[in-house]
Give the backbone structure.
Amino acid sequence: MTSKAFETATPDPIAYLDRVAATDLGRSYKGRMLDELDIRTGQTVLDLGCGPGTDLASLARAGAATGTVIGVDHDQAAVDAARGRTVDQHTVTVQLGDIHDLPLPDRTADRARTDRVLQHVADPARALREIHRVLRPGGRLVMGEPDWETLTVDHPDSNLSRAYTQYVTDKVVRNSRIGRQLPRLATGAGFTVPSVIPITPVFRDAQAADKILGLERTAQRAMAAGYLTEEAAGRWLEHLSTGPFLAAVTFYIVVAES
């Protein structure tokens, strides 16, 4: 089961993060998260799970020359890339660290963000408690996470799309429903949650959606796991590549205050 319409090779993780950030969707939601952070001149800002440093420069600009931006990531290759990208920015530092056990003192920062990070961590509640520890009283955390159970892909046989979404929810993403859970988890960690902002991007182009969703790669894995037969997966992908296309998923931006 292969097609010429969709990618079959898994992209490099750093290249994938850069790809998403460069899309209209990426620029839009990241801009909204930056607005919600409401960074003031001179503040200390944490980018937790900063990856290759995609957003460190924009955070540094928001804090002006007197601010401090600290990126933290658990992956050494990502940390090295982020350090390389910010070598000429004196207000930015990047550290190797675990979001469950941040290498930072109590009450270090005024602002913090996580962007599509908590869906992957082992213990989101513990991570949120740790973020609460390092924020100063009155500090602000802005999180952006999808809710993968809301993923819808139009197909004449809705059972096929339902099976695909079920596989993504069950097997692909560790914390697949984290988007809807964030307000409750943040409250449990000691935050108040003044704002929850749902964003539902709609994809009308199959190839553009595939760049983010990995439709064929994921369908192949769903087939291997028994969620789709080979015939069903082939039929599903054939329609997506030739017919009118529509897919959507809800992404939540959640603002929490310490």
